[in-house]
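User: Show me sequence and structure for the first protein, then do the same for the second.

Assistant: Starting with the first protein.
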Amino acid sequence: MAREISPLQKVRAAYEPKLPKIFKEGNFKPQIGAPAFPKTDKAQIKKLFPKTYGQGEVKFVKGKGEGLTTKPINVAVILSGGQAPGGHNVIVGVFDAIKAANSKSKVYGFKKGPGGAIKNNYMELTKKYVDAYRNTGGFDMIMSGRDKIETPEQLAACKANFEALKLSAVIIIGGDDSNTNAAVLAEYLAAAGSPVKVLGVPKTIDGDMKNEQIETSFGFDTATKTYSELIGNIERDASSAVKYWHFIKLMGRAASHVALECALQTQPNICLISEEVKEKGTTLSEIVDYIADVVCKRAAEGKNYGVVLIPEGLPEFISDIKTTIDEISDILGKDAKELENKSKSERLIYIEKKLKGHSAEVFHSLPENDRLILTTRDNHGNVPLSQVETEKLLMTLVGNKIKDLKAKGKAEGVKFSALGHFFGYEGRCAAPSNFDADYCYSLGYTAAQMARAGLTGYTVNVQNTIMPADKWVAGATPVTMMLNMEQRKGKPTPVIKKALVETKGKPFKFFASQRDKWAIEDCFTYPGSIQYFGPSEVCDLPTKTLILEKKDSGKKQSKK
């Protein structure tokens, strides 16, 4: 029996994503700029990437197809890491562009992420198959995975598999770690004399893969709009029931972009920004005091309800917890062999004995489940912070603080009843907004042109995105230009620098100028569900973050 398709999906399948004008007109060529270099660690990165270091940025400009092959080519795509809305449209954009250049070209998909490339688990993508996934959420077209292609054996296996398929290029769709991995693979293949090129596409709903060239990572728009709808619904419920404080944890492992964008869209009473917490050296007890103070002030106004937004990665930014996590990471890296065959409980005991001073005190103060989580790392060396129930921890600590204040006669009239929520997976596979549908299709289309140009070691980009799509500018950034050296698993490793929330940036400054008012007054806004049909100012609107960041540069670009 065939899978049932919803009425919305049927209509969305017919939606034609918008493209930059230069691609629609069909007369274009790649223009390579002057050599571009990373801002830091130049010598180390050049040593690690001698074949792909110092490449120029790429822009697609008017031309007659110079530098773009029209011969049949084979291209493969890989979805890497966590899901983000719009991934399917990246693949659709690649497919349409490759087939438009030459109908005999082939597009393959490696299944279940980079692991599929290592194991040679692939399928050829056909028009009938691809058409069923146009403008849909999820990564189920070819599925994703979190494997890394890094060992000599894995790299060699990929090279053999790619060459057996006679690939011209492999396009890896992923976040900062995945694009870094793409750079490693590109360098390896270039050094080995392989004809296969490697390109990356910037993906992550966390919004932390962006820089001067990459304005936003795909999926961020849809995910934050999905979460904001839910937050708005809860805000309305809070002001209707007038008896609950809602503590809402939002996805965002390292950066608070999701929390900040959702705050800009919904205007909650409290939104914690991890980067500000780190900058000020704020402790856990100070955060609890701040929330409790707002609770008491609102209670004095007769408002025993409210909404608190909490970034998923907050624990790593709280000064005393961050120090503990760093010390644990050093232990995990240096003592990997000793820990290899130990059970979870044995690992805990071992690490507890190794920790000293205040870090030991902080570690002991946490619930056992949280301690176990802090001693775990994923394939990229990150703490799985989504498993730390920060919202429940803060609810408990704020509740205890209110009890202490009441005992001292300082919280009269305060009724504190809290509910916890975590919005994460709800946004990862949502049907993409018009912005993400268009943006992702354009990214895929750009990646295909880079493959036709025979370029390698790049992450594609689309700029000027607060303007209508026909004014968007397509190009690519050398991955080595975005790299820096960081400590991973106890050793210096080249990685793309994560873009954290800038406390001096326009989005945060606007938020900071309003939050005291939002804390006490009911300034809730209700974004509602994502709109796909209707006026452009409703359906195609980018995030408030992007508008605040790029509104001046967008005007300058349009004048050019």
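Switching to the second protein now.
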Amino acid sequence: MISQIGSIAISLAGGLIFSSFIFLGLFKKFNNQTYLQVAERAILATSYCIFLAFFCLLNELLISNFNLQYVAQYTSYETPVFYKVTALWAGQAGSLLFWSFITALFAVTYTFTTLKKLKTLKFHSYIILAFIFSFFILLSNFIANPFEPVSSDIIVQNGNGLNPLLQNFFMAIHPPILYVGFTGSAIIFIMALAASISKDISFEWVQSIRRWSLFVWTFLSAGIILGGYWAYNELGWGGYWAWDPVENSSLMPWLTLTAFIHSSMIQEKRGMLKKWNFLLATSTYILVILGTFITRSGVISSVHSFTAENLGPMFFAFLAILIFYTVFWFFKRKSYLDTPDKIDSFTSREGGFLYNNLILILMCFTIMWGTLFPILSEAWDGNKIYVGASYFNQLNIPIGLVLLFLMGIGPLLSWNYTSQSVLLNRFKLPLSVSFLSGIGYMIFSSLFQIYVFVAIMGVSFTLSSILGEFYKSYKKQKKASNFLHSIGKMFLSNRHKNGGYIVHIGIVLLFIGFIGRAFEVEKEFSLSPGEQIYFSNYVFKLNSIKSEARDNHYAFLSEIDVVDSSTNQLLVNLKPEKRIYFYWNSDPEKRQPHSELDIYSTIQKDIYSIFSGYDAQKNIGYFKIMINPLVNWVWIGGVLMVIGSLFAFWPSRRDN
């Protein structure tokens, strides 16, 4: 019964969104506000129907209604309740409905907040929003319906269960957070187009779209960091970024949105860069749909991707329409988007932001080219040529290092113009710190690496630059206050600027973590209980290997003592596992082996242990140990980025 209600709700949503087009057309013809209000209510009713369908599917997953194909495929009686909830976005049909659900949340929020203030944007906002809504509702109704029943001649005794790789807390929360960022970019797309078409790009609009952008950027950033954390802790390869096509698809809109947030500050301050900002705002959502096309079409293989080739043409058509519509209105409103003001000096803060934007777009282009190259090569001569991680590293590491220095240069520049004497005075300390850090690396490092050398100098330069700006702000506030009160007043005096500085410090900490990748070492070996091996100043002794039957898997448990050879002290007891999910299935091909790794983590390094396999007859375990320096700085930096973005999201007391 509940599943039937959910199916009806999706169908009703389709009818309602179609009716909104009719009433919008009537408003355009007769200019009667009543029709616009009815169209608005149709869009809101569509959102409420999507809410109902979403919660109906959630109910069916929780009660294990295996009469539904989706429930039978992604859950089982043994699946823990928490992962039954996360099964909502584990498969194609559920994730599309979940996408519509978040879109509906944004549609309601956008209608009752932003459009209450910017009423002139209503008509064009509703047209674009209804079009986006109708596409995903169409998919849920006719292509990937999550309420599709199993075949009438099949009785499902138990479901397949959730993929073991997805039975991880961070993977459970990573997709919904990332989806909020993806779907939220649609609001930025809608606002940019609607304001340009309506010729109503006001100061209030700029502030509103920046708020939306910061909100979306926060979730995109958190989603990307959580995805890396999941990959590091679950996939067992010791890394957090592999330039996978789906990883790249989330990074590209993040780069354009980052560029937009920076350049929108110039538009807010001086009314410049309207055309540039229009392209950045609209490109962010277009890149989201491009990434979704890559993920869901099956044109490129990925550990993250869904495989459903029947969706490829649909998403490609949707993407083409979005691009055509954007380009059409860009040229239609080109004269309106022109601004008479120009950047006065390239040694100004505006110039610094422009350099920053160009570097971000260059990085986005290199990533997009490498990601799409297999598709383009196959279309050219039928041979799909994949681009490896070396391509992305060789191009993006130098670009990233330039970006690192630019983050430190920006705060040292003034609006409009920075004189030579001011430049020399402000650059003196950061350059000195950067130079000394580079000398220190050359003296104390046993193995010189040029990228590490430049990165250390860049980290020192940018960190000293930003901290210097904080110190200047602190000195202005400390005259009549105690230390803590001065610090509080300093941060609250300009939330936007200080929040941005916190984000930049977070990115600097990311680079510290990236530096550690240059010093990683690993070793694969086999041990029987009681044996030990020496590696990288540590002794690894295998104490035992045991087995244990659990609710939804069978596990082989190892215990490894890690002894610091320099002090001969026991450091930690690692317990990596080798799990077999669906171990009791009579079909061996349906059994899913999975290595549950164990990590000893400190601020300096991680000892990363993987139980690769077990030979029961010989009682031998096969292991892989990796020593990964500075990894925790990546997660600390990611958390700081999110905190800084949230801090900047709130209104500032004054603007600089």
